[in-house]
UniProtKB/TrEMBL annotation:
The gene is large1. It catalyses: 3-O-{(1->[3)-alpha-D-Xyl-(1->3)-beta-D-GlcA-(1->](n)-4)-beta-D-Xyl-(1->4)-Rib-ol-P-Rib-ol-P-3-beta-D-GalNAc-(1->3)-beta-D-GlcNAc-(1->4)-O-6-P-alpha-D-Man}-L-Thr-[protein] + UDP-alpha-D-glucuronate = 3-O-{beta-D-GlcA-(1->[3)-alpha-D-Xyl-(1->3)-beta-D-GlcA-(1->](n)-4)-beta-D-Xyl-(1->4)-Rib-ol-P-Rib-ol-P-3-beta-D-GalNAc-(1->3)-beta-D-GlcNAc-(1->4)-O-6-P-alpha-D-Man}-L-Thr-[protein] + UDP + H(+); 3-O-{beta-D-GlcA-(1->[3)-alpha-D-Xyl-(1->3)-beta-D-GlcA-(1->](n)-4)-beta-D-Xyl-(1->4)-Rib-ol-P-Rib-ol-P-3-beta-D-GalNAc-(1->3)-beta-D-GlcNAc-(1->4)-O-6-P-alpha-D-Man}-L-Thr-[protein] + UDP-alpha-D-xylose = 3-O-{(1->[3)-alpha-D-Xyl-(1->3)-beta-D-GlcA-(1->](n+1)-4)-beta-D-Xyl-(1->4)-Rib-ol-P-Rib-ol-P-3-beta-D-GalNAc-(1->3)-beta-D-GlcNAc-(1->4)-O-6-P-alpha-D-Man}-L-Thr-[protein] + UDP + H(+); 3-O-[beta-D-GlcA-(1->3)-beta-D-Xyl-(1->4)-Rib-ol-P-Rib-ol-P-3-beta-D-GalNAc-(1->3)-beta-D-GlcNAc-(1->4)-(O-6-P-alpha-D-Man)]-Thr-[protein] + UDP-alpha-D-xylose = 3-O-[alpha-D-Xyl-(1->3)-beta-D-GlcA-(1->4)-beta-D-Xyl-(1->4)-Rib-ol-P-Rib-ol-P-3-beta-D-GalNAc-(1->3)-beta-D-GlcNAc-(1->4)-(O-6-P-alpha-D-Man)]-Thr-[protein] + UDP + H(+). This is LARGE xylosyl- and glucuronyltransferase 1. It comes from the Eukaryota. Its main location: Golgi.
Length: 458
């Protein structure tokens, strides 16, 4: 029985094999007559495989593909172009940047320093007022008394190192300081620099009636009489203390004159100590001031407007009135400047605090900068000078010592593109007086007898 079952299975398998072999052969031969369609590789190709299009649909698809490729090429060309400046992307030619800059410079209170620092590193992106490269910048400095000439030489070196414009220095000096400075400029022979001297002894009678407790003595009051001392045709001037170190081009500060509005005639930085708040010690009674008051280590003076406002009468009346109760000044001319501003706040244009970073004890100077690039003017306005307490005093001290030891002969740099008179620097120290357009010395323009001045060419 078992043998019969096995025989039947073999028979069925042989029969099926005979039936399937011809069928498979026919299928293989018939496949060659059919067109095999490729699988769609993208949604676009999938749409093209639908039976709705025909030749018209294929042509429309090709046009779409070409349009997409053209858009991609245009995008690549746009990305390959150099990026535009942020100011160029702003509407109205970047006026938004100018508005934010103006706001920071005219702000007041504790936010002033923070706003100024926030814009410090972005200053290159903001359109700045332009100073013509051949415009002469006038700088006035009172340099008289003990050790003043040593400090002013370091200041002058820092200004000359960074400058790109012709300079005209106006020095109010005693005889010793004049001899030292004349000798130095004669040795350096720096082009595009003119120096005029004014005898400080001739000005003592203008301010000697004011008692002053400040260590600067009577010379610390002479900035009050610059409208009378400097030439009557001089319209504007930057006034600096001798204990100043510049860390930028002074032309940037000169450009701030263009921001003065209305009756603003004084550009000053807010005082960074609490002196004028009257809370430093018990019974501390400072001179009147607007808020924290202003520091006079760096002043922008619009001389022509000050003369029209009768500045001489204004400060004298204020000083006489306050001295009846205060008896003397504690911070020299700064007390009187602040008392005048207290009565006439419209006179002042507040500068960002990086234009006068004050390194006296207990100041808020650290709020004026976050990086070295934010620093513009450093003011050693403490009697301790280089020994003052400050978190970054080591950096400031090294900057000061660098200019102290700097060789002035290395400052002999020509200003190309500016017309100038012949350089007679070597002939202009001492000698006889000559006219302003002669090859001899230029007479000092000051109140009182004229004495020879130095000119090294404009």
């Amino acid at each position: 029985m078992l043998g019969m079952c096995r025989g039947r299975r073999k028979f069925l398998a042989a029969s099926l094999a005979l039936l399937f072999i011809p069928a498979l052969t026919w299928l293989y031969l018939s496949v060659g007559s059919f067109q095999v369609k490729p699988l769609p590789l993208s949604p676009l190709e999938a749409q093209s495989s639908t039976p709705l299009g025909g030749a018209g649909e294929r042509q429309a698809l090709e046009l779409r593909v070409r349009a997409v490729e053209e858009e991609n090429r245009a995008l690549r060309r746009e990305l390959s172009r150099p990026p535009r400046s942020p100011a160029a992307r702003l509407p109205n030619g970047g006026h938004r940047g100018n508005q934010s800059r103006t706001h920071s410079e005219e702000g007041t209170g504790d936010n002033e320093g923070q706003k100024a620092v926030a814009l410090g590193n972005a200053s290159d992106c903001v359109q700045q007022p332009v100073v013509d490269k051949c415009e002469t910048i006038h700088v006035a400095i009172v340099c008289a008394g003990y050790n003043a000439s040593r400090d002013v030489v370091t200041l002058v070196k820092s200004v000359l190192f960074h400058r790109r414009n012709p300079l005209h220095f106006h020095f109010i000096t005693d005889s010793i300081a004049q001899q030292i400075l004349s000798s130095l400029f004669h040795t350096w022979m720096v082009p595009a620099v003119r120096v005029d001297f004014y005898d400080a002894d001739e000005l003592k009678s203008e301010v000697s009636w004011i008692p002053n407790k400040h260590y600067s003595g009577i010379y610390g009051l002479m900035k009050l009489v610059l409208t009378k001392t400097l030439p009557s045709d001089l319209q504007r001037v930057i006034v600096l203390d001798t204990d100043i170190t510049f860390a930028t081009d002074i032309a940037e500060l000169w450009a701030v004159f263009h921001k003065f509005k209305g009756q603003q005639v004084l550009g000053l930085v807010e005082n960074q100590s609490d002196w004028y708040l009257g809370n430093l010690w018990k019974n501390h009674r400072p001179w009147p001031a607007l808020g924290r008051g202003f520091n006079t280590g760096v002043i922008l003076l619009l001389l022509d407007r000050l003369r029209k406002l009768r500045w001489e009468q204004m400060w004298r009346l204020t000083a006489e009135r306050e001295l009846m109760s205060m008896l003397s000044t504690s911070l020299a001319d700064q007390d009187i400047f602040n008392a005048v501003i207290k009565q006439n706040p419209f006179l002042v244009h507040q500068l960002p605090c990086f234009w006068n970073v004050q390194l006296s004890d207990h100041t808020r100077s650290e709020k004026c900068y976050k990086d070295v690039s934010d620093l513009k003017v450093i003011h050693w306005n403490s009697p301790k000078k280089l020994r003052v307490k400050n978190k970054h005093v080591e950096f400031f001290r090294n900057l000061y010592l660098t200019f102290l030891e700097y060789d002035g002969n290395l400052l002999r740099r020509e200003l190309f593109g500016c017309p100038s008179e012949a350089d007679h620097n070597s002939e202009n120290v001492g000698g006889t007086l000559g006219g302003p357009h002669q090859s001899g010395p230029v007479p000092v323009r000051r109140r009182g007898p004229a004495v020879p001045a130095l000119r090294s060419g404009l």
